[in-house]
Design goal:
Length: 300
């Protein structure tokens, strides 16, 4: 153990309970998620897909407060590489999530770029590589979104590199960071997605520390990942193969990531997100309890 990681605020998210959609009969009811995430020893949560948790701020505040929980962030998808024509629809969606996020006292909005292939069928929706013009749309669009979200809602925008999106590999992540203003937009580094796409989280934190605004903690099973790459699986089917696994059995090692983050000298959320959609209802809680215990053993 490396000593107390007192700048790291650990939490979990609906994702670790197999929740990907606002409504889905295969997902645990939201009340059960809130009960169990508190029981597992977490004090911070994310909102998850908008509409999964109650969207009435007073009701949600009551439900969260009485379980001793607090909200760290909201999440939204955006396809800003498509240019100015998608701005209004994007802003309408973002505003809804940002308003609830602010009402919950959170300070971060996590933005995931839209997928380039269908998550269920693997059908390509767009090319995996952006043109120069699309990169310009993406970077300028995210900067504008960061500015507007800060102005209207007082939230910090953190962009989440994600498998099967245009911000995924080390090259794409570095290009995005090099092309954007850290005053307007920073990164939500998801250790699992970055490893899934071949990146080194510790290296990224050491090289771009001032741009790391938020962390998602997850691990990849290297053996399953090798099969995913071989079979060219999209992310959804890869998750069903259990490519994302319970710590500490996968990669990257989380303690060095947390130590590197602690060294940045700023407070950072580190939200556990073990992608496991769909899953048996009784599966998440024991994993969450063990994961929280493991993170405590790392000093977090």
């Amino acid at each position: 153990m490396s000593g107390p990681l007192d700048r790291i605020m650990v939490g979990s998210a609906p994702d670790s309970w197999g929740v990907w959609f606002p409504e889905d009969p295969r997902q645990v009811p939201w009340e059960r998620f809130l009960d169990e995430v508190a029981e597992a020893g977490y004090s911070w949560i994310e909102l998850g897909p908008y509409g999964y948790l109650p969207t009435d701020p007073a009701r949600l505040a009551d439900e969260v407060d009485r379980r001793g929980l607090r909200v760290s962030a909201g999440t939204v998808f955006a396809g800003l590489h498509r240019g100015p024509s998608v701005w209004e629809a994007t802003w309408a969606q973002v505003s809804q999530v940002a308003a609830l996020t602010r009402e919950m006292g959170a300070r971060h909005l996590v933005v995931i770029p839209s997928f380039w292939r269908d998550d269920r069928t693997a059908e390509p929706l767009e090319p995996p590589e952006l043109t120069g013009e699309q990169w310009a749309h993406l970077t300028k669009g995210m900067e504008r979104l960061g500015h507007e979200v800060k102005e209207a809602y007082g939230l910090d925008l953190v962009v989440h590199p994600h498998a099967d999106t245009h911000i995924d590999t080390e090259d794409h992540v570095e290009r995005f960071l090099d092309s954007t203003d850290g005053e307007l937009v920073n990164l939500c580094l998801d250790t699992g997605h970055y490893a899934y796409c071949g990146g080194d989280s510790v290296e990224l934190i050491e090289n771009y520390g001032e741009r790391i605004g938020y962390l998602h903690l997850k691990q990849v099973d290297p053996e399953v990942l090798a099969g995913v790459v071989r079979d060219r699986l999209p992310f959804g089917p890869a998750v069903r193969r259990k490519v994302m696994c319970e710590p500490p059995s996968g990669v990257p090692e989380l303690e060095p990531v947390l130590v590197a983050a602690q060294r940045l000298g700023v407070e950072l959320f580190a939200i556990v997100e073990q992608d496991m959609y769909p899953c048996e209802p009784d599966e998440p809680l024991p994993i969450a309890v063990r994961t929280r215990k493991f993170l405590r053993s790392c000093g977090a």
